[in-house]
Amino acid sequence: MRDPRAHRFLGQIYEVQDNTEKAVGCYKRSVELNPVQKDLVLKTAELLCNKDTSDGRAKYWVEKAARLFPGNPAALRLKEKLLEYKVEDGWNELFYVTQAELRARPDDVYLNMRLVALYHSRNKLRDAVLHIQDAEKKIPLETSLEWCSCVMKTLEVPKSKSKLIKGDPAGQDKLEKLACDQKNQSGHMVLNLSHGKDDFLKETVESFANTMGLLTLFESLSGRGASRESSFLGTDEMGNVSTRAPMQEELTKYDIGAVQMHNGSLQHLVWLGLKWNSVSVLPPMRQLLKQLFHLSQETSRLETDAPETICLLDLEVFLLGMVFTSNLELQEKFNTHNETHQPPFLPLLLCKQYYTEKQRSWWDAVRTLILRKTSLLVTKLKFLVQHGLSTLRALEKRGLQPALIIHWARSLQNTGASMKFFCDQKEYIGRSVYYWKKILISLETIKKSKNIPEPTDPLFKHFHNVDIQVAAYEEEARIAFAVRDAVEGKTDDAFLAFEAMKNVVSYWNLAELCQRKAEEIMNDDMLPEEQEHKTYLLKRKHYLTKIVDKCSSDLSVADKLPVSIETVTKMLNTVMQELGELEEKEEEDLSSGKISQAADSGVNHSIPLPKKLLFSPTDSYKFSPKTLPQWAEDAQSLLQMLCQQVDALKDEIQEMKCNNASVSVSSHQWPAKSCGTDAICQMVLREHKIFMKLP
C-alpha cells in the first residue's frame, strides 16, 4: 500500500492504542511516501522521546525535527529532553543550546524561563537573578504569569527541612498522604453541607471566622466554663478564610492520597462513594482502584467466574453496588426517624459500618490473592472470590435485584461516555451492554408475574422500595445497545435503532450522529460535499426541533435528556445559524455566476466532468434558469485554472527554445503558440486527469 494518508491514519490508530512501535513505523512510511508531511516528523520524534530517550532513533528524529522547525518550542523541548537524559555534560550542552536559541529569539518567554531554571538547578542563584534583571530591562515580562511564578520561585528564601523529612523520605510521603486525608475528609464535608445552598459558606464564614464566632462554637461544643488553653478552637486565630467550595478535581486528587493512606479500606472507599453520590457525581472508582491494584481493566471471559479472570471493572462494580445499597439503607433510616435537621452523612470516624461480614470477607480475599500476601488457605480464598464473581457478573442463580443491575449498567454507561480514549470507552460501554442483556432476561421473568428470588445471605441486600417497572427499562436497554453500535463505528445500525425508538433520548443521539457525520464531511481531505453536509445539518435541526417540541408539551420529558433543554435550544440556534450562512453563500454564488472567461479561452462547455470531484446537477439544489448552477461554476473555475497552467507551460517552452537554439522540440511533443482550441482542450483534459490522481 503506497497511500501516505492510509499509513498516517493507521499510525493514529496505533497511537491511540499505545502501540508506539507500530505507530512510529506507520508514520515513518507515510513520510517516506510524502516527505511534505513535516508535522509527522515532529510527531515521530515526540513518540520516541516519550517511550525511551536512550533510543538512538529518538536523537535522529529530534535533530530532523529541529532542522525542519527552527525555533519551534516543541522541537526545542524534545531536544532538551534528550540532553537532560545524558549524564555527562548534559547540563552544559543544554545550557549552550538554550543560550544560542535565546540569542536568536531574546523575547521568547519560555527560553528566558528555561535559562533561569538551568541556573537554579545548579544553585547559581546569583546568575539567575542577574539574568532576570537583564531580561526585564529588555522586554516586558511582567504580564506573563509563568514568568512571574519563575521569578518568585527563584527569589524565595529556601527553608531548612525538618529532621523527619530530611532524614526519612518515607516520613515525607506519609505526611503528604496524611495531609491528603485531612483535606479529603474536610473537603467532602464542606461540599456536602454546601450542596444546593448558595450562601451557606459565606454565612458560615461570617458567623464563625472571627473571635466571637470561635468562642460561641467552642462553648457550644465544650460547654461554658471549659478551659480554652487545651483546645485548638479556643486558642486559634482564624482570619482570611475563603468562601470557595473545593473543586471536584481537587477532591479527586485528595481522594487518591487518602486511599493510599487508608490502604484500600472498604469502609473508606464506600464512604467516599457515598459522599460523591450525595452531590450527584459518579465516584472516581477507576482512579482509586488503580492506586491499589495492578490489574487489567476488563476481561474477555465474562461468562466465567474463575478467580484468575478478575479485573478492575469487577472491583468497580462491587464498590458501586456497595454504595448503591448503603445509600438506600441510609435513606430508609433517615425517612423512618425523620431527622431532617441532621446531615445525611457524617465524618468517616463517626460513621457506622457500611459493609456486611460477607462483603468484608470477599474484599479481603480479593486483596490477599491479588497482592499475594499469603500462601496459606489459597483454595478457600479462591472459592470466596469465585462465589463473589458469580454475583458481580450476574451469572446463573445470582440472586441480584434487577434495580442493582440497572444501576450498574447506567453507571458504567455514564462513566464510559466521559472517557477520553476509545479503548476505555469501548470496555465500559461493553460491560454496560452486558448488564443490560442480563436485565432483559430478568424483565422477561418479571413479565411472567414471577418474582426474582432473594437468597438467604446475599452479597447485596434487596430493597423493595426500588422495584422496577418493566417497559421503561426495556427501552433504556435498547438505547444502550444503539450507543454501543455508535461507539464501535456501526453508524448505520445506530441510526436505524435510534430512529425506531422515537423518544427524546434517541432524538438527541441522532442529532449527535448527524453532527459527527457533518464534521467528517467538512474535515475530509477531498473536496467536501456541500449538499451532503447541508443534508446532515437539516437532519440535526429536525431532531433537535423534535426534542424542543416534546419538552414543550411535557416538561417531565426533559429530565430524561443527558443535557439541559437550554443546551438543546442553543445547539438548535447554532445549527439554524449555520444553515442560514450556507444559504447566503449559495445565493451569492448563484448571483455572481457568469461564464465570461470560458468564451475567451475557447473551451467547449460540453466537456464531461468527473463525478468524483464536482457536484452532479441531479444531486444539487433546484436552480433558476437565469443563473448558473454551482457545479458548473466549479467546473468553469477549474478549467480556467488549467488553461492558465497550459499558457504558462507554453511560455516556458518558448523561452527554452530561445535560450537553447540547439534543442529541437517536435510539434507533436509541445504545442506551438498558435495551436487551436482543440489542442488546448486536449491538454486541459490530460491535466484534469493528472489533477484527479493527486492525493
Automatic annotation (TrEMBL):
Coiled coil: 632-659
Keywords carried by this UniProt record: Coiled coil, TPR repeat
InterPro entries referenced in this protein's UniProt entry, alphabetically: TPR-like_helical_dom_sf (IPR011990), TPR_rpt (IPR019734)
Superkingdom in the source lineage: Eukaryota
Ranges for the TPR repeats: 4-37
SMART domains: TPR
Name of the protein this chain belongs to: Uncharacterized protein
Source species of the chain: Pavo cristatus (Indian peafowl)
